[in-house]
Amino acid sequence: VFFFNDTATTEIYTQAFVGSVRCVQETGLLNSMEKKEDTEASKGKVTKFTEQDLSKEQPGFVVYHSFQADELATYLAFINDVLKDDPDVKEFLPLLNEDALINLCKDGIILCKLLNATIASTVDDRVINRKKPLNVYQRTENIRLAINASMSIGCHIVNISPQTILDGKLHLIMGMVWQILRIYLLKEINLKKVPEIIVLAEGSEKLEDILKLPSEKILIRWLNYHMKMAKQSIVIKEIGPELKDCLAYIHLLNQLDPSKCDKAGLAETDITKRTEIVVGNAQKLGVKQFIRATALSQGNPKLNLVFLSLLFNTKHGLQISQEKKKEVEKAALIDDAKEGTKEERTFQLWINSLAMEGVYVTNLYSDVKDGLLMIKVLDKIWPGVVEGKRFEKTPSGNKFKMIANGNYIIELCKKQKIVTTGIGGSDIADGKQNLILGLIWQLMRANYMQIIGGKTDEELVAWANSMVNKPPGIKNLKDPSLKTGRFFIDLLAAIEPDVVDWSLVKDGTKDEEIEMNAKYAISIARKLGGKIFLTWEDIKRVNSKMLTVFVAAIMNIQTVSYTHLT
Is the separation of the CB atoms in 398 and 370 below 8 Å? Predict the structure, then answer.
């Protein structure tokens, strides 16, 4: 049902539905002779049916069509909205169908632009190849830059490479766009950005606990909070099918603004008309028009998350006193200043980049407690080191099993010559932050050093100095001269001379120049294939830990001729 007033939006949804059928054909749904599962492109699995299955009525098949159409239409609307004023891509907008999306993504520019629209300066704009026509190598560099940069802001990239984008694999392109959209919508939904979220604390939770609460859980609590305020018995546990009747949305919108959103939809028995009322009321509040009604009535988890996020970001309806707001803001500033907070985020990003099945870390200290996460990390770094019979596979809620897993982790670390002095299995089970950070840092370092052949820090520095060839070079990775960023640019230029535009490189004597050089070096490294998780501030502060893995990543670029770290 297409009910939008403006022609462009209606056209997007019509084209998207038609395009979804083509995507189904291209991915083999109509021609597959075997029943199997498609790749996990964007956290959702697509079922392939046999020809015999397709000769019957297939509810799942219809749902796939509709999910595909709804998602594609939402992603196109998102791109058209956030990039409508971008000088490099606005001439190609609005995108109306999957062909336009595929073709525009093939040069990588729009993906880089989406990342910067989501989190400013994720990609250094100076590094993007944009002078048309771009050859295959230049397009590959742009796509590689976008993929590696996306992981640095928390995108969970699975089975996506420059070649899959160049080949026009729609389901993988949509998977990447979804990851970017998800971060775009959720980036403001946290206690630091919205102090009023503190009213959603449960039981004995402290302010520190709410600071670590994932955005999706905040949205669920927020929705249930308003259900309680509306004196409704509705309790939502997961975003998705539980919301398909749209009753919770009707009450939520009425709570947010009763003058604009009445509860007339409760009396509507036609689910299609009820969802139209919900979407219409949301538009009255100023919610961006990314979603069509069928996405809600089918319980699509992704698009219900989009809708809820848009509602929250438009009007959350939470209130606290000014005194409480100042208290929360002060605590948030203290949390930001903690070195451990920055390291925690870096380690989460690194673990997520390992692309382990069923693993996506959102709260490092909580996620490591049962031991299973770190056991998976160890097995990823040193395949075969973990013995299946040696650890508890269902430890959740059982402290003894959690400690047993922690002890096994320490045992495995010792075998790999990881320093474990002062940390035991109970410390992992208890989520002791400093000890956990120290252990995971060693695992991250070991992973990068293993990739470059087990080099020592001294060998790494000697290699970098030989590549730059500007005596006297650096003494170590604590050398104060590294703060200017020029050494890293020199090192990258030694690997690929044409990648650096020297007119953009500054002396690095001023803070602004240091920032520009550092951001330039990081984006160049990502463009050449490095998985880079340090920030430009790490270069400015000469954070030797992060500079060690940065140089190791650069060395790997040369070693494998600009392919990804694995």
Answer: no
